[in-house]
Amino acid sequence: MSLSAPVRCSALAEELDEPMAGSATQVTRWLLVEDRGLWGHDAVRDLMGSEATAAAKAAGMKLLLVRQREGDPAADASRRVMLADASSGEMATRTVADLSQLSVAAVAAQPVASFGDPLAGALFLVCTNGKRDACCALRGRVLMAAMAERHPDRTWESTHLGGHRFAGNLVCLPDGLLYGRVSPADGPRLADAYLDGRLDPALLRGRASWPAPAQVAEAAVRERLGLLGVGDVGLVSASVDGYAAEVSLEAAGEEHLVRLRREASMPERITSCRGEELDAPTHWVVA
To answer: Would you state the pLDDT for residue 280?
Structure first.
């Protein structure tokens, strides 16, 4: 009898060179709830309830649990809650003593300025939810350690960000830039660049506030023009018709039209360490 190591979805996706651009789930607002307890497979639903998670999904808002360290859940008698909006670039924070005081549906609709105290600068999120997928623990925790050493006050562990096969996953707020395959050496470098108003297209999964085809188009335009500033590219319009899309972007004082098509990544593979079924993920590519 011989034992073999389990196949990890992030290692397999990397080996198959699965493209990352366009893989960020489209959300504009991020609601972060501090929680120091143990996180299970459905940690957000376990704490916040199915009604809150459904309200966040309906509003196109990402609801996450975050922490800067594990600890006694009793310490969460008073929790920090943060709201970030990519469209306005605003962030705010407040403290709640009881989660029943927090209406997810109301937060999704209210101005950021009325949510709480203004929060300046940037926040960095690293997915470490190992109960959801082992790759998020294996790659996320070492990334978190490196990030916390460089930016201890700005970096938070988070629950599931989506796309665990691209771990380690890093989000830069308020712009909602999602990076994948981030190593412990890459993380602090990406954070420093973001604080300086720059990004790295090579590791960018996408600008989460934009639809997937626009995320891919942005990467293509940036590569073509050599643009690294976070605000160097703007979205004018995006339309999808089945397996075809057209995206118009503003960059370098001109409008750029990008046509894309959706293709399956072959061969079929597992897309989660917990999954057993094979799948061929689809991706947008420049046509």
So the answer is: 84
CA distances from 50 to 81, 95, 200 (A): 19, 22, 36
Nearest to 123 by CA among 96, 92, 94: 92
Of 3.40.630.30, 3.30.465.10, 3.40.30.10, 3.60.15.10, the CATH number of 19-209 is 3.40.30.10
Instruction: Provide CATH code, domain 211-287.
Output: 3.10.450
Amino acid at 88: S
Report DSSP letters for 117-161, one per residue. EE--S-EEEEE--TTT-HHHHHTHHHHHHHHHHH-TTTEEEES--
Express each pLDDT in 20-77 by its tens digit.
999 999 999 999 999 998 899 999 999 999 999 999 999 999 999 999 976 666 667 7
Q: What is the dihedral of CA 7, 12, 15, 17, to 10 degrees?
A: 180
Mean predicted confidence (pLDDT) in 168-189: 97
The single-letter DSSP state of residue 13 is H
Give the start-end residues of each E strand in the chain: 29-34, 61-67, 79-85, 90-96, 117-118, 123-127, 155-158, 170-173, 177-179, 204-207, 233-241, 244-251, 254-264, 282-286
**pLDDT of 278 strictly over 90:** no
